[in-house]
Design goal:
alpha+beta; OB fold (Dihydrolipoamide Acetyltransferase, E2P); BirA Bifunctional Protein, domain 2
Length: 502
């Protein structure tokens, strides 16, 4: 077996070996160019089938001629005949190469000029070896691209996590599981789009660059438009533009949106991520609850083939959802009843008795409830759980509950102790909305953010009349993490944000 992947000999550093192997490969390329065989001059190659199709349908392909291409991942030289494994987009297949079939000159070039990692095209007939492996007996072989850098050693692969994310192209070459994760990501997105399209939703696009800092309580990335001499901000949500479309009569809309938040990074947060927001006129947050449960069940069943999945060793029943108000959840897990608090001071004393240090010195009952939820409840919500009726203090875009104006018609849903999405009965009162936005801007400026502004264009839209509307946003990357059993968001984003190497 010939294996010219990276495998550092004793006494030779890996960097020195990479340099040496790179030098040798460039010499081989120069030789091919001198012989008029420059592999980079190949424009296309007429591939007519892929490896998995041939292997899964051997009886139909046995003895037939196929034209295939892919990356050489192994090679076993045996005198006048040799074997290689070629990887394509669906898997890999073995090829059998002989001097008799491709000629003396081409066979010697295959032995001396080809390396592991090279992209090759081949034509031949399908057969099974004596060991029963489906293979292609090659009659034509051509190098389509020379790999000037050696691949990692086959059996250890690319193990360093930092390098896996920085060199995702190499990670994809070496690790089938990584390729499968991103195929599943694509399938999940397709299933979500199918679900919403079949419910009469229209997919739309809204601006990514904004002339002012608006929206959620998150820090945006700031840039500058030279032609307009105008500071601009990368969006931190898609919500306000989508609701303007509802005002315009587009009753059901959704956007698969790239979002940018200038905040910290951890297993569940990347500064650049994907959200899916959807809005439906003449519906409320209970309709959104019904829809998100059904969407998760439908997508999970279609992608995983079951509603019972495992995430990081925890069994999750996606077919069984629980619903609790925030006050009910805090009472259940913290033993404190919101309804027992007559005043804000009562609430603060309750938090103090539980050892919870409040962020706000003069915290209202609503803020205390929120902080108790964060401290005692969220990490307990393992099975799919909807928490609804949020205090108005942290829900500036949600409609107040007519029966209790201290709360809003808002919910979030949690799985494995993490939040996966957020939904409202949307606030459509322009006067109330402006007052809440002014308070939100005041709070941001009190923290030193002088760029925060009220989105007057959005208020103007509401003044024309927003019908009763249900809206929902889901964290797409987190959903992919769940269905692919990935422990970090970096495993489901092809090119996650990385700190530059020094």
């Amino acid at each position: 077996m010939q294996n010219n992947n990276v495998n550092t000999p004793e006494g030779v550093s890996e960097e020195e070996q990479l340099i040496e192997q790179g030098r040798i490969r460039r010499e081989k390329l120069a030789k091919l160019v001198a012989e008029g065989k420059n592999p980079y001059e190949q424009v296309k190659y007429p591939v007519d089938v892929h490896s998995t199709t041939v292997k899964e349908n051997f009886e139909a392909y046995e003895g037939k001629t196929v034209t295939m291409a892919g990356r050489m991942m192994s090679r076993r030289i045996m005198g006048k005949a040799s074997f290689s494994h070629i990887a394509d987009k669906t898997g890999n297949i073995q090829i059998y190469v002989t001097r008799q079939d491709i000629g003396e000159e081409n066979y010697m070039s295959y032995k001396k000029d080809y390396d592991i990692g090279d992209i090759v095209g081949f034509k031949g007939f399908v057969f099974k070896t004596q060991t029963g492996e489906v293979s292609v007996h090659v009659t034509e072989l051509i190098m389509l691209s020379k790999s000037l850098l050696p691949l990692p050693e086959k059996y250890n692969g690319l193990q360093d996590k930092d390098m896996k994310y920085r060199l995702r192209h190499l990670d994809l070459i070496m690790n089938k599981d990584v390729r499968d994760t991103f195929r599943v990501r694509s399938q999940i997105l397709k299933e979500i789009r199918n679900y919403l399209d079949n419910r009469g939703y229209l997919e739309v696009d809204t601006p990514t660059l904004l002339p002012l800092e608006i929206g959620a309580d998150a820090r945006p990335f700031k840039t500058h438009h030279n032609a307009l001499d105008l500071d601009m901000y990368m969006r931190i949500e898609t919500e306000l533009f989508l609701k303007r479309l509802i005002v315009g009569g587009m009753d059901r809309v959704y956007e698969v949106g790239r979002i940018f938040r200038n905040e910290g990074m951890d297993a569940y947060h990347n500064p650049e991520f994907t959200s899916i927001e959807m809005y439906e006129a003449y519906s409320d947050y209970f309709d959104m609850m019904d829809m998100i449960e059904d969407l998760y069940k439908t997508v999970t069943q279609n992608v995983c083939g079951t509603l019972n999945i495992s995430y990081q060793g925890t069994e999750i029943d996606m077919g069984n959802w629980t619903r609790l108000t925030m006050a009910e959840a805090v009472k259940k897990y913290a033993g404190v009843d919101y309804n027992d608090w007559a005043t804000d001071e009562d609430a603060r004393e309750s938090a103090k008795s539980l050892g919870v240090e409040l962020e706000h010195e003069n915290a209202t009952k609503g803020w205390v409830l929120i902080e108790l939820f964060d401290a005692f409840v969220e990490d307990k919500l393992i099975q799919p759980t909807i928490i609804y009726d949020y205090p108005v203090e942290n829900s500036p875009l949600a409609k107040r509950k007519p029966s209790n104006p201290a709360f809003t018609e808002r919910f979030e849903y949690f799985i494995c102790g993490h939040e996966y999405g957020n939904a409202f009965s949307e606030l459509n009162d322009p006067i109330d909305q402006k007052q809440r936005m002014l308070k939100q801007v005041e709070a941001k400026r009190a923290k030193g953010n002088n760029d925060a502004q009220v989105d007057e264009d959005f208020i103007n839209a509401l003044e024309y009349g927003l019908p009763p509307t249900g809206g929902l946003g889901l964290g797409f990357d987190r959903f992919v993490m769940l269905l692919t059993d990935s422990s970090t968001i970096r495993d489901v984003i092809l090119f996650p944000t990385m700190k530059p190497k020094k």
